[in-house]
Design a protein that fits this description.
- By secondary structure, this protein is mostly beta strands.
- The protein has a single domain, classed as Immunoglobulin-like, CATH 2.60.40.
- The protein is built from 1 helix and 8 strands.
- The strands form 2 sheets. The chain has a 4-stranded antiparallel β-sheet. Strands 3, 5, 6 and 7 form a 4-stranded antiparallel β-sheet that branches.
- Strand 5 and strand 6 form a beta hairpin.
- The longest helix has 4 residues.
- The protein is elongated and about 40 Å long.
């Protein structure tokens, strides 16, 4: 299952003259986890080049963005979350921050 996002902020905010830099701040629901990570293209496609994607930890889960595969990896107690784990209910909606170039 693909992730769904809602964005709270869609404006260049890094520097006054950095009109090419875009910052997204919002919430993300990761859905059902697949071994190897969840496709993050819904976020990375918002940018020409994604520089940073951070997903906040919650309910004992931590998250990492793998730039090579464009996937969000989920961990609990230091181990990757099991295949078919429903992350939509626990931990549910998570805050994220994405920074990249728009052109």
């Amino acid at each position: 299952m693909a992730m769904t996002i809602s964005s709270d902020m869609r404006f260049p905010r890094c520097m006054a003259d950095a009109t090419n830099v875009l910052v997204y701040l919002g919430t993300i629901n990761l859905g059902t986890y697949a071994t190897g990570g969840i496709d993050a293209s819904e976020i990375s496609d918002l940018f020409r080049y994604l520089l940073f994607l951070g997903v906040m930890s919650n309910s004992g889960y931590s998250f990492d963005y793998d730039t090579a595969t464009d996937k969000v990896l989920a961990y609990i107690a230091g181990a990757e979350v099991a295949n078919d784990t429903n992350l939509a209910t626990d931990p549910g909606a998570l805050q994220f921050l994405a920074i990249g170039f728009k052109t």
